[in-house]
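REVIEWER CHECKLIST
Item 1: Sequence provided? yes
Item 2: Single chain? yes
Item 3: Sequence as submitted:
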Amino acid sequence: MTRRRPGRDRAQAQQPDLFAPATPPSPAALQENPRPATPDLQSLPAVPRELWERLAYSRFRARFHLGAKERDYLATRGLPEVMAHAADFIATRLAPAHPDKDGRQTPWRGHPVFIAQHATGTCCRGCVAKWHAMPAGQALDAQQQAYILSVIQEWIRRDAAAPMAQSAPRPDRR
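Item 4: Structure as written out by the authors:
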């Protein structure tokens, strides 16, 4: 008979029930960690023209475009709601000094903002440091977050206005 380490049973007893109904957060918890406010799309800072020129030279960044699903999502939800999602993504996944899973926190597809983040170099702190000169290891302030939101918004507007790229037919592999 094998003996378990002391305390193991106690740790299992403290684990929450994964199938229990979720309890709403207390009002005190909501005040400590409020959701970011919906950004005012008119008051975002201007994006320098040089950034778009630099991004155009990157073959990796230039290959990102909104697909049919992302365009439909944008048309259905509208730019203000998509930018509210962007503000939430930036505040939770990019603004902390040391975000969880930095370098892997932005999915490659599934939301117009994710694609815009990869296309504009705002997907992780390393890319933000390289493309936008905001040093990694320091939390982003409200002005820096507004700048990143304006970059993402401008890219989404530009790409949504452009005709959808047609994929070239693949050659038959016989």
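Item 5: Key structural point noted by reviewer: Residues 103 and 149 are 19 Å apart (CA to CA).
Item 6: Recommendation: ____
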